[in-house]
Amino acid sequence: MDSIRIHNSIFNMKIKDIEYKDLCLKCLDLISLTLVELGQQKDTDFKVVLSKSLATDLLESFGSMDWDSVIMSFRYGVRDVEDVKFVLNVQTYYSWIKKHRDLIWREESKEPERRDKRLKYRSKNGTGLKLIGNQIKYITK
Fold first, then answer.
1. Rounded distance, CA 26 to CA 101, Å?
2. Rounded to 5 degrees, what are φ and ψ at 66?
3. Sign of the CA dihedral 94, 100, 103, 108?
4. Under 8 Å CB-to-CB from 86, ≥6 apart: which residues?
């Protein structure tokens, strides 16, 4: 049960708040999954080096992103038919993450109903925040 709680807590954490060792392990899992989704086979050394590179890049350039957003950037990057890149390397994953970060920034100021559907995982639905906001408006009238 504790491993599930730890696993879930990492999803909502900012990259800069995840310990480097844990981040490297999460990156290794993500790299391995992405290679399978792309139909590529690489040796363990390649995966380890690429995952350490990804962890370092995330800490240096994308520290304020959530781990969820990184996962989704890989998911959408693999499935993007317009941006055809079938080789997983630093340039590929960096462009996927930047593209997803830019999407988040562009959609942040829009009303929830008008946001890009790919950002649904970032929703605050079910948290009670909207209800509290409505109560505050009612009280201040």
1. 19
2. -80, 155
3. negative
4. 38, 40
Buried/exposed code over 113-128 (b: 16+ C-beta within 10 A; e: otherwise): eebeeebeeeeeeeee
Token pair for 98: 């930047």
> How many C-beta atoms surround the C-beta of residue 63 within 10 A?
12
DSSP summary character for residue 110: S
> What CA–CA distance (Å, rounded) separates 86 from 88?
7
Judge whether 72 and 62 are in contact, CB under 8 Å: no
Domain limits, the chain? 2-140
pLDDT tens digits, 78-108: 988 776 767 899 999 999 999 999 988 887 7
Length of the chain: 141
Type of residue at 80: D
